[in-house]
Amino acid sequence: MDLVRLRHVLCPHIIALKDAGTHEVLPTICAKLGLPAPDHGVSKRERMSASFDALANADLPSVAERLLELHPPVPGVRNEIQDILWADAAPEIPKRFRRELARALTIEDLYLNPRHFDDLLARLWVLDDDPMGWVVGVDRSLRASISQHVHRNPGDWSVEELFDKLGALEASDRRFGLFLEGLASSDVRPDEAAQRRFVHIVNGSLCGCGIEMRENDMEDGYPVFTIVLTHAAAAGRPKNLIFASSVKPDLRIRDALNNDIEIVTNADRVLVYDRPISVAGLRWHDLQSWWSETNGIPDDESSKKSLYRRLRDSLPKNSPPQIFFFNAFHSGFSRAVPSLPVLLPEVWLHWDPRTVRERGADALLRFRMDFLLLLPHGVRVVLEVDGKHHYARHNGQADCARYATMMAADRELRLAGYEVFRFGAEELLGDGIRGMVKRFFDALFKRHGVFVPPH
Q1: Distance CA 120, CA 114 (A)
Q2: Interior CA angle at 284 toward 248 and 13, to 5°?
Q3: What are the backbone angles phi and psi of residue 423, rounded to the nearest 5°?
């Protein structure tokens, strides 16, 4: 992410917020955006400028996201800010495959609901690009052209021409992906069969670049499709994350239709995150927001510290390497952690009301994961710390059967779409653990397009 450019683009729009209120209101405006409190100054412009100048580079992306939400700029500026934020944060869809997709579609394939189609275009593209139209009395904007050549005379433009005029062929990968997801949505296409026909056409054109649209949720009775890497994402979205518990949770399903889980006893020993996981994955600030609201902790710093302690304290006391690994991640990335995928400890993959002894040969191979990361676009990464108990008996002799069971469990995870990485306990006990862990995560995040703010 180009933070220098982001600061340059944001600056005039942050300063312009001087007109959003009086001197007394400026601190509230800044607080909502995540800006430092404005110092006393001669003018509101000076105060907003000083506040923005004091903002750390690592906090620029979050301020930009809040600005887009709370004080949305004109579409051209909105798109410029979004494209900076989205740089390298989406699967690559080369221009050739976009063009082939456009040629595989007809205008009739694009939408069923014209109003929601136009709303989608306005969210992603600059449609009102003729500011002088009202003066000369002739609207030559892209919006007017679409109305004429797509809606009123559907044979005038091909889909390829529409994509070209929108800028979809050259747009960022994230913008183009959101465009396709919007076209497949039930708002634009309120008919499940039509949704699936469209997705079939898209997947036929994009399979050559390792991309597909995959159904992974339901909304208002309609399927939800998102862009994922064909071989790197698990099917579906997490419904419940059961984590931060080294003992088997005492759970029951309160509402089987809604998949509502109730913790029967020892509720303080297990966490259940039940909010939707977005295409961006699960980041620390998402989990902290949930933690703050669940526990009634309004103070940001107190919430962050208490969540960190709760996660750290869930790690097995008899496994120093896991604790060192967790600490090395957080100390290595320090200020960048809130924007990164959260390192979830002690995550329950399977939960069975019966014990392994009761279940017998049908018992699931792996119940709990040491660590889990939910990265953008449905990528799930499992991190395991292997001590002697993974491959040896209590007397220290090699246990081939135990090792074989562990490898079988890894195969099941990989076939289900998870990435699995193992660390030997011994390598997490040396002096260079922090550097080793940092290098691993730097490479992992780079591979999956996760932006790491300066820290």
Answers
A1: 10
A2: 160
A3: -120, 130
pTM more than 0.70: no
The answer, yes or no, to whether residue 412 has pLDDT greater than 80, is: no
**φ, ψ for residue 289 (rounded to 5)?**
-60, -45
DSSP string for residues in 333-384: HGGGGGGSBP-EEEEES---SS-HHHHGGG--S--EEEEEEE-GGG-EEEEE
Q: Which amino acid is located at 204 in the chain?
A: G
- Reported for 104-108, long-range contacts at CB under 8 A and 24+ positions apart, including other chains, are 104/201, 104/204, 104/205, 105/159, 105/201, 106/159, 107/150, 107/154, 107/155, 107/157, 107/158, 107/159, 107/162, 108/154
Q: Look at the alpha carbons of 359, 364, 366, 372 in this order and tell me if their dihedral is positive or negative.
A: negative
- CB under 8 Å to 453, separation ≥6 — which residues? 1, 3, 57, 58, 59, 60, 61, 335, 336, 339
Domain limits, the chain: 3-85, 95-229, 241-447
* CB contact at 8 A, 301 and 231: no
Query: Is residue 366 a contact partner of residue 413, using CB atoms and an 8 Å limit?
Result: yes
Mean predicted confidence (pLDDT) in 284-311: 90
Kindly compute the dihedral angle of the four CA atoms of residues 61, 63, 65, 71, in this order, to the nearest 10 degrees: -150
Structure tokens that stand for 182 in this block: 């919007």
426 alpha carbon, distance to own chain's centre: 33
Look at residue 234 and give its three-state secondary structure.
coil
Residue 120 contacts by C-beta under 8 Å, 6 or more apart in sequence?
179, 182, 183, 185, 187, 188
Share of the chain above pLDDT 70, in %: 82
Phi-psi region of 377 (alpha: psi -120 to 50; beta: other; left: phi over 0): left
